[in-house]
Amino acid sequence: MPGSKNDDVERQIKVRLLRQDALHRGNPLKLWAIVDEAALRRPFGGNAVMREQLEHLVEASTWPNVVLQVLPFDAGGHPAVTGGFAVLGFPEASDADVTYLDAQGGLFLDQATDVAWYRNLFDHLRAHATDPDRTRDLVKKISKEFT
């Protein structure tokens, strides 16, 4: 990233790898992800890197604790076009759900009305995204375009 220090980039990579490990542990986290088609098609790191990343998404989408959907171009504009977000739910009733906005530095929202708004947004996106089987086919097709 422009302006990023090498140490910051390395730290971000380590954090992302730790988060990914949570999908493989004994009691793995559940992940339902919706990815905009533009993110899959925007070249980053060269063709080999893109193919590897897309093939990894296809593999991850087969894991029992992961659901992957793509919001295709033909779905048109959507309210989440301004950036990524995650709604984090917790098993303990005493732990309130939160929303994480993937903005510069990140932002957590813990007000129930904010979390509810983002849950509704997620449901809207999920309804307009491709189903998981069609998603796998689309991601495979896109990965072949990076030759």
Would you kindly provide a written description of the structure presented here, covering whatever features stand out?
By secondary structure, the protein is α+β, with helices and mostly antiparallel strands. The protein has a domain at 73-128. The chain is built from five helices and five strands, in the order αβααββββαα. It has a three-stranded antiparallel β-sheet with strand order 3-4-5, covered by helices on one side. Strands 1-2 form a two-stranded parallel sheet. The longest helix has 17 residues, at 112-128. The two termini are 24 Å apart. The model has no long low-confidence stretch (mean pLDDT 90). Residues 2-140 form the DUF5753 domain. It comes from Saccharopolyspora gregorii. InterPro entries: DUF5753.
Overall pLDDT, averaged?
90
Radius of gyration: 16 Å
Number of strands: 5
Measured as a percent range, the helix fraction is: 40-55%
Structural class: alpha+beta
Stretches where pLDDT falls below 50 for ≥5 residues?
none
| Strand order in the sheet with the most strands | 3-4-5
Query: SSE string, helix = H, strand = E?
Result: HEHHEEEEHH
- Strand portion: 15-25%
Largest sheet: 3 strands, antiparallel
Q: What's the shape?
A: globular
Give the N-terminus to C-terminus distance in angstroms.
Answer: 24 Å
Enumerate how many helices there are, as a single number.
5
